[in-house]
Structures
1.
Amino acid sequence: MKAPGVGWPRLAAWLVVVLLVGVTTAASLRAMRQLAPVAPPDVVRVEGLVVAMRPDGTFALREPGHGGWLWLRPAPGAGISLAHLWRHLREHAETDVSYEVERHGMALAWIAD
C-alpha cells in the first residue's frame, strides 16, 4: 500500500523549486557582475603598505624595497572601502592594489585589498 501524499506530483514540485532557486541565483549573480565597475585591461598590481591618507580618499602606498610613495586616488565607481584603507593604515597591514595611470599622471586605484 502506498503512503498518502507521496509520489510524482511531490517530486515534480520539489524539482521545480530547486530549478527555480538555481536559475534565480545564477541570474542574480550575473546581474551583479554586470553592475560592478570593470577595471581596464592595463591595470598594474602592486603590494605595499598604506602610509598616508587624505580626506578626499587619496592614499599613499609604499612598496617594500622602493624609495618613494605612490599616491593613488580611488577610481570613480570602484568599490574601494576607505574604512578598510584606514584600518590598513592603522594596522600597518600589507595592501594589494590594482591601478591604472591616467593620461595626466594620476594613478587610479580600482581594487585595494
Note: The mean pLDDT is 86.
2.
Amino acid sequence: MRPVVILIFILAAVFQEGAAGWPTKLFSDAEVADRAELIVVGRIKVGSIKRVTREDGGAYRHTAILIVTRTVKGVTQEKELPITIHYGLLPVSARFEKEMNIKPTLPEEPGQATRIFEDNPSEGYFRPTGDIHQDQLWLLHRAGYESPSKTLGVLNPEDIQPATKEQRIKALLSKP
C-alpha cells in the first residue's frame, strides 16, 4: 500500500506542474518567416509599452508602438506601427531583471534597456530578446492564443530576432 501512495504523490506533483504552464515549442527561422505577414527592422518607441489585462482579471498582454526602420517582407506605409505583445511574453526593464522572479516588474524604465522574456508559469522566465529599444527584426503576424488578433504582433520569442539575422531571413524568403 505504501508504494502506491508514494506513486500517487509523485504523479500528482508531476501533472500539477505541467497543468500550470504550457509546453514550449521552438520555432525554426523558416517557420516564423513563413507565418509572418509583415517582417520589419524596427524598435519599440520608448514609453509606449502598455499592459492590458482581460476584463476577468486573468491573462494580460502588452501593446506598444513599433518604429519601423525598413521593411523586409510585406507592405506598410506606417513609420509607427501599433503592435500586440501577446500573453506569454513579458517585457522587462533591465533594472528589474534580477527581481522579476519575486515581484511584479515595470516593462520600461527611462534610460534602461528593455528585453522580452518568455513567461512560462511552469518553467519561469527565459529566452530573452535583445534590447527592444534598439533595432531588432520583428516577424509580425495576427496569431493569438484565443483567436486571431486585430493588430499585428508577436507571440513567441522567435518572432523577435537580432537585426543581424536579416540576410538569413531574406534568404529563407527567396526559397520556393
Note: The longest helix spans residues 2-20.
3.
Amino acid sequence: MNSSQDKLKEAIAGLFPDQVKVYDVSSTEINYKNNSLLHQHFQEPLSSEGGIQLAREIAVFLQDQGEDAVYSYFHRSPVSAHVEAEWRLSSARLQKSADGLPKEVVVFTYNLQLLGDSRKRLYRVLENDDFFRANLSKVSSLTKREKEIIECLVSGMTSSEIASKLYISAHTVNSHRKHIHTKLATETPAGLYKYADIFELACKTQTP
C-alpha cells in the first residue's frame, strides 16, 4: 500500500480486527433490479458471496452521491455452537479512483452489544421487522390516550381500574377500547400484547 489513504485503512483495520472489510469493486457491472440486497435487514448472516454482491450494489448506489455518503444496514452475526447470534450494524462508504470511478467499498461493523440495555428495543424491532413495517401506520393512527389505555390493558387492568387511574369514566375507556381494536384489527388480548411489546406503547397517567 502506497497511498496515505491505504495506510490509514490498514491502521484502522488493525485497531478494529474483524470489524473493517474492504471490497474491490473496480470492475463492477451489475443489474440488481430484481434480486437486490439493498434496503434489507438480514436475519441470517451474510455469506461471503452475499457480502460481495451487497458491496457491489452499494458501490452502484453510492456512485452518484456525495463523498461523505454512507449506506448502513443491520445483519446477524455468524453463529457458533457456543455463541448466540447478535445483531450488528454495518456502515459502508465508497472510495473512488482518481478518475472518479468506483474503487473500493469499506465496511465498518458496529457491535450492538455496546449499546447495553438500549439494544433491547432495537432487537425487538429487527426480529419482528415484517410485523413492524406492516403495522407501523396502524400504530401511528393511535391517539396518545389510546396508547395509554393499551399499556394499561396489557398490564391486566380492568376498564374500571383504568378509568380510576386516568381520571376518566369507564364508558370513555370502553369507547377507547373499541376504537383501538378497530384501528389495530385485533380481536384477542394476545394480539394487543404483541403491538404493545414491539412498539413499546407506554402508559402515562396525565390527562390530555
Note: Residues 48-62 form the longest helix (15 residues).
